[in-house]
Amino acid sequence: MTINELTTRIQIQHTQELSAFRQSITSPPYMAGTPTSLNADRRSVRMGPVQSVEDTNANLTIVADVEGLAWFTADKGLLGSCITVSIAGHRRNTGTRVHLPLAECDAWIEAILGGSWITHVYRAGQKVEPDGRLDVASYRLFLDERRHPVAKPQAVADTSLRRLEES
Fold first, then answer.
1. In this structure, what are the phi and psi dihedrals at residue 109, rounded to the nearest 5 degrees?
2. Domain ranges (residues) in the chain
3. Which of 53, 123, 135, 167 has a CA that sits 20 to 30 A from residue 160's CA?
């Protein structure tokens, strides 16, 4: 199954969960809306467990951490935020960890962040072959203070980040 087919299947099977999760992670990460609170706040949002679309015996837990760039970097004056999405799989009957196919993880990210934002997503961690499997998949998206996706700021020291389209 191609990534587009997987993404479509995920969107059809998990419409409500995706919509609620996307709203939770893409809304501003602050309450009062001041630049200080914009850069200092952090929250986690969890989706799942949801059934894997490729392995009917596996469930996925998807967690997003949304944090102001001042929280995420040493540059306390940097405006904007970072969304980190992590995907982990486990057996439905035992709860033990299961390795995830890279294509399904990428399809979940596309279903969650999709549209024009997907071209700004970075994969974190070691490079994996396209047919490889992951224990936990992690992705990052950086947003400016107006909630528009931007390239990885220079203040972000993580050298393991690669654009999704390049990795």
1. -65, -40
2. 3-166
3. 53
Rounded Cα distance between 165 and 117, Å, is 12
- Give the helix ranges, DSSP H, for the chain: 3-13, 15-26, 35-40, 69-72, 102-113
User: And the tokens for 115?
Assistant: 């549209």
| Residue 135, helix vs strand vs coil | coil
pTM over 0.90: no
**Per-residue pLDDT tens over the stretch 49-101:** 998 988 889 999 999 998 888 777 777 777 888 999 999 999 999 988 888 88
| Identity at 160, one-letter amino acid code | S
| Distance (Å, whole) CA 26 – CA 149 | 11
Strand ranges (E), the chain = 42-51, 58-68, 81-91, 97-98, 100-101, 122-124, 133-134, 136-143, 149-150, 162-163
- How many CB atoms neighbour CB 24 within 10 A? 15
Nearest alpha carbon to residue 10 among 138, 19, 117, 99:
19
pLDDT in tens, 148-160: 899 998 888 888 8
